Amino acid sequence: MTRMKRFDLRDEIHRLDPEKDCVRIMQILQAHEFPWDMGRALGIALYRTYAVPSIGELLGRTDEFTGNTQKRYDDTALILGDMVRHGFEPGKGRDALRRMNQMHRSYDISNDDYRYVLSTFVVMPVRWLNDYGYGWRSLSEHEISGITHYYRKLGKYMGIKDIPETYEGFRELLDTYEAEHFAYSEGGRAVSDSTLDLMVSFYPERLSGPARKFSMAILDDSLIETFRYEKPSKVWRKGADIAMKLRAKVVRRMKPREEPFWASDNPNIRSYPNGYDPSRIGTFPASCPVAHNVDPVAHQDLYGAGGDPGPAEQEQPIEAGSDPDVRA
């Protein structure tokens, strides 16, 4: 058997079409090349949205991100992860997409807020890996195009209108929206506090103090100021930056990951020790009083003329980390 070389997966991506094969590109990037980094970047992407009052206040009112923080973290990671792992075709990936849209339709969320959240998913992995220099290698323009097309497709299946066509468009949207909308809100601060508490809980208790300071040190000034936190010291800022870049150098010298690492393999996901069904996780709030005449996930271009066939048959729930084809 030929041994995989460090850049073989990158080369495989470059042989793929960034639009037609965007799901496969995301699978390689998220489960093989950068599983830890993509998780951190997408976590920060979601965290940024709390600084927009219309989003932070909504999340604060639901109590899901403050009273059930661990479960909400798990549900988000598993739903997004299942869509990457299984794609949007009939099965678990489409069930996860449907479940996400069902939850979102229970609330009155503006198209502008949807567009902004989508932009964080596109932009933050690129900033983390390339701009901050925390990746063991940089993403190529080809890979960035694949990420962009993946989230454009996801946005279309969510029913989002006026989706940017390019990475540059997403980046401009993110920067402009944050400049115009970042502001303190009680709900956003509460959700931020709960999220930071959860992140710290992933470390041994004796390390909780340094872990919190480290977590704060990798947040940019706009977030620190919006949430009215004390600004991290220059020592912590510099130390965190050096630590992340040293980690990148170490990972660069490691063997390539031949077996995928999916969201369900993450030991920090704790809510489903006996497995989960993607069509049954998440929240089931009361119906939104705002009329929704179109089911975003029932578009004919996704389901065809036959419409939405409903959740896929589930013989047995998937047990996190136990499915033989997802072990790292």
TrEMBL record:
Record-level Gene Ontology MF annotations: oxidoreductase activity
Domain ER-bound oxygenase mpaB/mpaB'/Rubber oxygenase catalytic: 43-236
Pfam families recorded: MPAB_Lcp_cat
Sequence segments annotated as region (Disordered): 299-328
PANTHER family documented for this protein: ER-BOUND OXYGENASE MPAB_MPAB'_RUBBER OXYGENASE CATALYTIC DOMAIN-CONTAINING PROTEIN, PTHR36124
Descriptive protein name: Peptidase
